[in-house]
Amino acid sequence: MSEAPLLSVRGLGKTFRRRGRGFLAPAVEVRAVEGVSFDIAKGETLGLVGESGCGKTTTGRMVVRLLEPSTGSILFDGVEISALAGKALRALRRDLQIVFQDPMSSLNPRMTAGELITEPLVVHGVGDRVARDKRLRQLLGLVGLLPHHAARFPHEFSGGQRQRIGIARALALSPRFLVLDEAVSALDVSIQAQILNLLEDLRSELSLTYLFISHDLGVIRHICDRVAVMYLGEIVEIATRSALFATPRHPYTQALLASIPEVGEGKRRFQPVTGDVPSASNPPPGCRFNTRCPHVFERCRAERPPLVEVAPGHAAACHLLTPSATTSTGSLQA
Amino acid sequence: MDAASAGDKTPLLDIAGLSVAFAGMTVVDRVTLTLDDGEVLGIVGESGSGKSVTAQATMGLLPDVARVTADRLNLMGEPLLGAGEKRLQRLRGAAMSMIFQEPMTALNPVLTIGRQIGETLLRHGAVTAGQARARSADLLSRVGIPSPREKLDEYPHQLSGGMRQRVMIAMAIACHPRLLFADEPTTALDVTIQAQILELLRELQQEYRMGIVLISHDLGVVSSFADRVAVMYAGRIVEDAPAASLFARPAHPYTRGLLASRPSASHDTPRLQAIPGTVPPPFDLPSGCRFRTRCALAQPACAQLDPPRLQVGPTHGAACLTPLAEAAA
Ligand SMILES: Nc1ncnc2c1ncn2[C@@H]1O[C@H](COP(=O)(O)OP(=O)(O)OP(=O)(O)O)[C@@H](O)[C@H]1O
Ligand SMILES: Nc1ncnc2c1ncn2[C@@H]1O[C@H](COP(=O)(O)OP(=O)(O)OP(=O)(O)O)[C@@H](O)[C@H]1O
Ligand SMILES: [Mg+2]
Ligand SMILES: [Mg+2]
User: Fold this and answer.
1) Is the pTM of this model over 0.90?
2) Hey, where are the domains in chain A?
3) Which SUPFAM superfamilies match (chain A) (predicted)?
């Protein structure tokens, strides 16, 4: 990457402390995210994919500073933002915004769409009433809503329309960077396509940069330039979209891709990886995928594999891919 | 899916002209479906299209306020409409059963897993009280639950989502039903766990020669699992065909629209062709074809006429006045 990335995350981690089950039980530590590093160039979309509980939302919320990181650094446009507070943090919020999965639960049901969309402007003291009204009409148009929609309440909209409101609200302060956290996951496929198209249009019209969080690999493949795959709090593989889908190198990425039922493949059998995702409060030692990995060997149970570059711009964390993997039991080529 | 074409063999499930209304609003409208022994029928459609209500009507699980009418609603030749609640209760579990998207709604949170499976078995006289525990453990083991004996004493909330779904499947197949409704059985699950559950259902289906009605909004899931597929839109079946034929040669503009709006994980998709607008609610349905307000190919006649099912292939039908030509090829 020749130009400095817009966002650069290094060694990001978050540990939650949760009360243990039962009276007097000791507190449980949940390492929701550990050692996560990635860059996102201006105008680029990085996908964050992985199964439930792997730490996608936690990562996204840390990046927009809705959640305090336990470790690591976040550089936004060259500025360290992981420790910003007060006024500087407020100023930063104008640049970084987040759109959530379920617009219904993130939108105040007693506010009209117009109030919801302009609320960030009011909070940040941007413009007067007239200027805000003008901006509201602009934003409604931008996300494909009509002027008369401004007077309606969230429950009077369909799911897709509510997501448009959520996007308009996130765009109100003209941010440069958006985290989209499962922003299309709750929508029916025909509506999901409308919102994906809208997000693509906005990206080019407003030169936005996205961190796109989803568990849906089809959606990820469609909208992202590069993709990071997470498993139990860690990035296990990161690559360009084409490399990740054509030559996945981590056994977990391979398992994910092999598990997706596709239209047109006809009736088929799956050879699913066995077992459940282990709990984040009790991850296995060594490689976190070792309890389910078809290629597991001794070293995987003892040692954490580092993320190593396997091709330019393509990195994966697997002992089979590290040079000294002499005890390997199988080939990783799909 | 023409019922008459089933020949002399009685189909496992034979539904003709099934309609369901709530407070005067028709949410399932003259649905016709048949299913043979050991066959898998997929029902796809967007939220609110009537997939679950169709299944619940067959199972006799709709609340009393639902008005259910049908020309035929037969399970192995036996009419279900008008059968008493007692008879339906016997049939549920023994002859037909159902699994849902969220096992937590079907499992009792305050009873152990063992107790719940045991009660299902006892209710249908499948075992004596003394055998219930052993048989329950067998079932848990059959659905791939590790250390089944220990799991018998656990409560639903102690299990992962995938394990809960396995428990619900164990309960559903406990009495070897001929017909299983699987209503979005993997929608709440991660994709690697979904693959495990689909694989399990496939094994059980072949082992027991069950007929399965798989309800899903995921075209990929249906394509990989079903023999035949029915596409629902706003309470109606708009297209039905063998799965291979439906996905290779979709004839209804809605089916085509669904396929074109779906991003694929196995190949790059150019800009998605989103279907404009939204599904009309049951209290605001357009005249004639219900899809016409979103259909790029709509003509004036589409507002006048309720499109009948047109045959576009030997076992492929579409409810469209001008089903897309290539489909017939
Ligand atoms: N506030 C919290 N307190 C304690 N644990 C938490 C908290 N938030 C998240 N976790 C835990 O951290 C882990 C990561 O959660 P996170 O929500 O980031 O996952 P995710 O990848 O977004 O999952 P999903 O796909 O289900 O949204 C999980 O084990 C979760 O239970
Ligand atoms: N008990 C009920 N009372 C009133 N209306 C109902 C009831 N159950 C379902 N409906 C309505 O019937 C229509 C069809 O619902 P159904 O649950 O069959 O949809 P579905 O296709 O299964 O959708 P989803 O994909 O969201 O599960 C919807 O408009 C729904 O609101
Ligand atoms: Mg999340
Ligand atoms: Mg349903």
Assistant:
1) yes
2) 248-334
3) P-loop containing nucleoside triphosphate hydrolases
